[in-house]
Amino acid sequence: MNHTSPDRPLVLVTNDDCISAPGLHVLAGLAAEWADVVCVAPKRPQSGKSSALTVNDALRVNEEHPAGAVPGVKYYSVDNGTPVDCVKVALYSIVPRRPDFLFSGINHGSNSGTNVLYSGTMGAAIEGAVEGIPSAGFSLLHHSWEADFSLSLSFVSELMKRIRATPPAPGVCLNINIPARVVPRGVRTCRGCPGRWNEGYQAYTDPFGHEFLMLAGRFVNEAPDATDTDEYWLSQGYISVVPVTCDMTAREALPGTAAHFDF
Amino acid sequence: MNHTSPDRPLVLVTNDDCISAPGLHVLAGLAAEWADVVCVAPKRPQSGKSSALTVNDALRVNEEHPAGAVPGVKYYSVDNGTPVDCVKVALYSIVPRRPDFLFSGINHGSNSGTNVLYSGTMGAAIEGAVEGIPSAGFSLLHHSWEADFSLSLSFVSELMKRIRATPPAPGVCLNINIPARVVPRGVRTCRGCPGRWNEGYQAYTDPFGHEFLMLAGRFVNEAPDATDTDEYWLSQGYISVVPVTCDMTAREALPGTAAHFDF
User: Fold this and answer.
1) What is the ipTM of this complex?
2) Alpha carbon distance, N-terminus to C-terminus of chain B
3) CA A12/CA B112 separation, integer angstroms
4) Does B89 touch chain A (CB under 8 A)?
5) Could you tell me the pTM of the whole model?
6) How far apart are CA B140 and CA B153, in angstroms?
């Protein structure tokens, strides 16, 4: 590869919505204003894939020319690739040098609160943090393919500038969620809202008389009165920024747990 | 379902290796000594699936009678189900009452250190913690289907007893790894070892002349001199217990991050 200049930062852009998602091009376009950009994204949508990675199976890389591609940006897809696969394949088999930043998204849909656990968008950003690359996932609270990203463009651009100036601490990436259909009132750093999905599954009968289930959950906010969560700030029209750790050890639980379990 | 007694604890057992994995029966057998047990596990192996869940696709549940089944234990598989799918389907569509405990494993292979991010075994345990159920994932450092679980049976049994007496704090589950081929020297609670996989991918050419990649990574321990990590204690012949949080907010990073990103 010789399309990039070592004098400019290199940005790896990925997502979980697939190589042709409009949100990917928005992020690539904003990064291309100040960096060389390589997009490596799943061939097909990979929502809800968390940090899943492909073991013991073949991965194929394709150069792509998706509709809406940003001029000067190289695009690659990974067949059957999860977001984490895309990051790993990009780092070890595609990019010409180590990326300076990794941006994932802009996701078509929320990744606030507990969703960070299931999000493929954030799986990619967390993988960037594991690799020591300053990383952030961006998500717009709107599922449609025709979602309007324009209202928050200047905010995303300013956030990129701030991430360049002050990257997240090692082992930490950013989970950035953007309210839909409004010009954001500002940006607030906060904790991820605790919660869970419930209401479970809806049962159907297939044409051959066999039952199948479809996920029909609804998010339950377990801190509805808190004013320091991403759910709260999003409800107030702000962009939320949650620092997310790739070290899942519950350090505050360590001493007490040790007392009970060591023998 | 009427095969369980409300007077006994109910334990949900799952894994990522699939419904017929020997490690699943080991865990179910030990739990059945003191509890009613329901196993809900993937139909096919789901290693590396993290907290991935199935959205917008059909899930089918099958009652199973796998070889090696523990007498009195009910078994169900979920077609194409990830470990998180199995937990959700179990809770919302299978079990007769809320489980008192969730145990995942015993995995055929390590889930120490950074592997917790990618592990389907731990994805299931984390999902249990999200649901407020005391949960633990168990993994033996041996990939073979014929792995010998017998050397650590009394330890796993004692750990279950201690989990019953003192469940993990809300939002916390346990990542328990067991050394292979030795009688463990004991149990040590500790932090997960920081690290990452590198060395990337090996390239092949398929019979039609197209290139494909296979993951060929090797774990790089980023704290090789630390004596407070799971990698360290496992290397010393101990079982490691890491408390794992399902809240990924990097709280120590919050104040500094807020200063840079709020506007």
Assistant:
1) 0.94
2) 55
3) 28
4) yes
5) 0.95
6) 11
